[in-house]
From TrEMBL, chains A, B:
<dbReference type="InterPro" id="IPR043131">
    <property type="entry name" value="BCAT-like_N"/>
</dbReference>
<keyword id="KW-0289">Folate biosynthesis</keyword>
<dbReference type="InterPro" id="IPR017824">
    <property type="entry name" value="Aminodeoxychorismate_lyase_IV"/>
</dbReference>
<comment type="subunit">
    <text>Homodimer.</text>
</comment>
<dbReference type="InterPro" id="IPR050571">
    <property type="entry name" value="Class-IV_PLP-Dep_Aminotrnsfr"/>
</dbReference>
<dbReference type="InterPro" id="IPR001544">
    <property type="entry name" value="Aminotrans_IV"/>
</dbReference>
<comment type="similarity">
    <text>Belongs to the class-IV pyridoxal-phosphate-dependent aminotransferase family.</text>
</comment>
<dbReference type="InterPro" id="IPR036038">
    <property type="entry name" value="Aminotransferase-like"/>
</dbReference>
<dbReference type="GO" id="GO:0005829">
    <property type="term" value="C:cytosol"/>
</dbReference>
<keyword id="KW-0456">Lyase</keyword>
<dbReference type="InterPro" id="IPR043132">
    <property type="entry name" value="BCAT-like_C"/>
</dbReference>
<keyword id="KW-0663">Pyridoxal phosphate</keyword>
<dbReference type="GO" id="GO:0008696">
    <property type="term" value="F:4-amino-4-deoxychorismate lyase activity"/>
</dbReference>
<protein>
    <recommendedName>
        <fullName>aminodeoxychorismate lyase</fullName>
        <ecNumber>4.1.3.38</ecNumber>
    </recommendedName>
</protein>
<dbReference type="GO" id="GO:0030170">
    <property type="term" value="F:pyridoxal phosphate binding"/>
</dbReference>
<dbReference type="GO" id="GO:0008153">
    <property type="term" value="P:4-aminobenzoate biosynthetic process"/>
</dbReference>
<dbReference type="GO" id="GO:0046656">
    <property type="term" value="P:folic acid biosynthetic process"/>
</dbReference>
């Protein structure tokens, strides 16, 4: 893995960084293919919004792009972490602290075509998502919920785990957003007091609406799985994936997932920019 | 500040440490005076319990004490952070990862005697505490709630801010546990689905019970402040503090706080061990 911290190649950060002490920061995971960052404007807008929500100064896009030009990945999973920076002991922030900017490049995960043609297998996690309206939607560094949920299985055939919140509402996957197709309506949790509003979630909803699918952002329980025609997942690395099975339920309608994936990839490539010197 | 990481003097950690990526770890703050760690067995037991709750292997006490002997503080705020260690991209843990052990020594905060004789001033924070039964009580590294609440004020005369959860229950201070005295009963939130059960909280409740005070762990709202005879705070660095004022409410009964502080200090010193070579 190649890493830059504040533009300098290094594999460590200050032990007093608030990202370590408090998870005081945000992050993004992006897909880079053939030297181009997919859906960059969408990711950068989300990074800005998440920083603003926590009161962290978001680095200029030009700085991040200069970092990426230095790392010059061809195909990669790019991770950007912005923390509030280094400060002394205690929760109070040193107002003079400047944010820490971390850019990492790692190999893309190996997602075979069969995931898209045969659908993925899920499980239902026992770990509940925290209820916190103040942090809902933000991709921040307080991710113990996801860590604890991901510890529930070792079986490599399980692609992701679905998580409910403490009220029993089915919200999202550990590393994906979740959509339920019933008739011509696509249901997804509104994420008003829990969950992560992924950058691809917005694009999926836009594209589905453009295909004439009705979008319903509303809460539902895990019992709803028995009633729906198809389950879909999205994230920035995998795009849109159809679900084959979750526990006792199974689905065979992969059409919308495949159409949305093709449309999402096309749009994400249209919105891509080169991340190496061209 | 002096820091050891895995027993080695250094001021940085690996950028791939899960403590940074996910807040995947726990911490302790302890008071060291005249080379002795106050209430060490209590702190170590809590560290073990918090590590166990997250499935992190807790380092042996001997390792931590050897670190502290190397740092050899006289009077200090000691911070111990244990993370799940370094792993590759993604929420799944590398089972071969070994925990990262960070021991830091910083000057004790300057708490004048007047805080104890005149009481401290508080404010009520707007930021709600997350509801999460799985993490309640644990002093983990997902501390954005405290960071965001602490950002609500700059006034140095405010010692701490009180936090409610999303259900409107008054739970604790940003950096303290909270107790309400009404008649002969001491009320404190049960922390079943939010909050941090500080190491000193258990000792305060033991000591108060020993003084004949009735202990009531139950939920209450911020409106309860208007009805109580005294407010008390505790943490490991400050001991027990009386509250003089919070918003429009004020209190003048500091007796129990002062008695509990003296008893807590005596017991914490009894339970202390030397942290430098003697």
């Amino acid at each position: 893995m190649n890493t830059l911290v504040d533009g300098v190649a290094q594999d460590h950060i200050a032990v007093r960084d608030r990202g370590l002490a408090y998870g005081d920061g945000v992050f993004r995971t992006l897909r880079c293919e053939q030297g181009r960052l997919l859906a960059w404007p969408r990711h950068y807008a989300k990074l800005q919004a998440d920083c603003a929500a926590l009161g962290i100064v978001c680095p200029e896009a030009a700085l991040l792009l200069a970092d990426l030009a230095q790392l010059a990945p061809a195909s990669a999973a790019v991770k950007i972490i912005i923390t509030r920076g280094v400060s002394a002991r205690g929760y109070a922030c040193d107002p003079s602290a400047s944010p820490t900017r971390i850019v990492q490049v790692a190999p893309l995960p190996d997602y075979p075509d069969s995931l898209r043609t045969e659908g993925v297998q899920l499980r239902l996690c026992a770990w509940p998502l925290s209820i916190q309206p103040g942090l809902a939607g933000i991709k921040h560094l307080n991710r113990l919920d996801q860590v604890m949920a991901r510890r529930e299985w070792q079986d490599a055939s399980i692609f992701d785990g679905l998580m409910c919140n403490a009220r029993g509402e089915l919200v999202e996957g550990v590393m994906t957003n979740l959509y339920l197709l019933q008739g011509n309506a696509l249901y997804t949790h509104p994420l008003a007091d829990c969950g992560v509003a992924g950058a691809m979630r917005g694009l999926v909803l836009e594209l589905a609406a453009g295909m004439g699918v009705q979008i319903c952002q509303q809460a539902f329980g895990a019992d709803r799985l028995a009633q729906v025609d198809a389950l879909l997942l999205s994230n920035s690395l995998a795009g849109v994936l159809p679900v084959r099975q979750c526990g006792a339920q199974s689905w065979h309608n992969f059409d919308l997932a495949q159409q949305l994936h093709a449309a999402l990839l096309e749009q994400a490539r249209k919105e891509s920019i080169p991340c190496c010197p061209v």
